[in-house]
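Limitations
The structure tokens in this dataset are predictions for the assembled complex, not deposited experimental models. Users should treat interface geometry with appropriate caution, especially where small molecules or nucleic acid strands are included. An illustrative entry is reproduced here so readers can see what is and is not provided.
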Amino acid sequence: MRISQLSERSGVAVATIKFYSREGLLPAALRPGPTRTDYSDVHLDRIRLIRALLEAGGLSIAAVKRVIAAIDDPEMPLDHAFGIAQSAIPATRGERGDADLGGQGAERVAELIADRGWQVYAENPGIALAARTIDAYHSIGRGDLLRSLPAYARAAEMIAAADLDAVAAAPDRDRMTETVVVGTVLGDAMIAALRRIAQEHRSHRAFPVDGSGPGPAEPPRARPRAAEPTRTEEHPS
Amino acid sequence: MRISQLSERSGVAVATIKFYSREGLLPAALRPGPTRTDYSDVHLDRIRLIRALLEAGGLSIAAVKRVIAAIDDPEMPLDHAFGIAQSAIPATRGERGDADLGGQGAERVAELIADRGWQVYAENPGIALAARTIDAYHSIGRGDLLRSLPAYARAAEMIAAADLDAVAAAPDRDRMTETVVVGTVLGDAMIAALRRIAQEHRSHRAFPVDGSGPGPAEPPRARPRAAEPTRTEEHPS
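Predicted assembly:
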């Protein structure tokens, strides 16, 4: 197809397609004649990947380049290409500041990884993020909240299993990489959203208020699962 | 204690403590004499909460005010105060744009909530975030990735159970609210971090490369759990 058709089918302006080409993000078009360039579905898929990385993934053009170079390199093992894709994702909230790599956080992450039997490279971006976040809990005096870590780790395993199923279902390296980046970024937002919903559901169970509408509630006395309603309209104590 | 001691023990400047007071974030000091003001551990705990909400939680002063007004209102049920705290947390990434509240995303979230038997108010901030995120998957043509939703929802339940245990372990409303906000924000970062680590671990298992160091790898043929090594140094095929 001509560049005008590629533009129409991808919804991306001709000037933008030319910019992607100059930046080396798009493979060269076939040149059936000296004045014609010809594009195929390969180009369409690649434009789609670029848009997904830029828009849903929030990657910079430089980061998109690195990711695309990795997936275009046939010598690059897939798990390594995925690592590059993961690392290209911009910092998530809570990730501010540096981890003290010999510090408490780094040690606790190493322990957790050993406990779970996880096999990972030291460069995994999650390791530094986890270390920094553990340091942040300690810096505000809430190291007690780290008791949730084992439950979080089990949940992360469940999430990662679903994520890898999605990657394995993709037909080629382009689509797999798109799945890694898009799935990671949108998945983080989705999990955060579902966590808030599940928290509220659990909160009603843990801190029940009888009757309809707002009313006074006592602080819970015991573990949430064991909590009895603190007052009832029917049986005032 | 005097304001100077409160400043020293909290690590917060006297001018900042006075600012918190003027903004109505701190309860009034005791006034044992016309020229003396006296602060207690209640004030120290409250300053700690304010710092945690501002710094770890990323809340604005206006949002901190709303959260503190909710926990200071004895008529406010705890689960409702938690909802206010949750809603005060600034938008997470992926949350850009509006959800089409009659749209595909909103419908799918309602379905998921019904499937899980979750009891939540329509104002739960996770509902709109989930709807917008589902719309984002569709807008880039990756609605297929929503197959991960049930696994994500089960993981969210596991996370929320740990979160509510942490809230229930807190001694009073101030500390419980701090736990809701700090635990939600730092917990999001922690779960995102552990997810990346678990993904890499799973990725090595799903797309194994034999031998040490990088080398060529075939794209996987089958489901990750069933994948056999695609080549071995010892037994070339």
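Some entries come with short summary sentences. For this one: Chain B has a mean pLDDT of 81.
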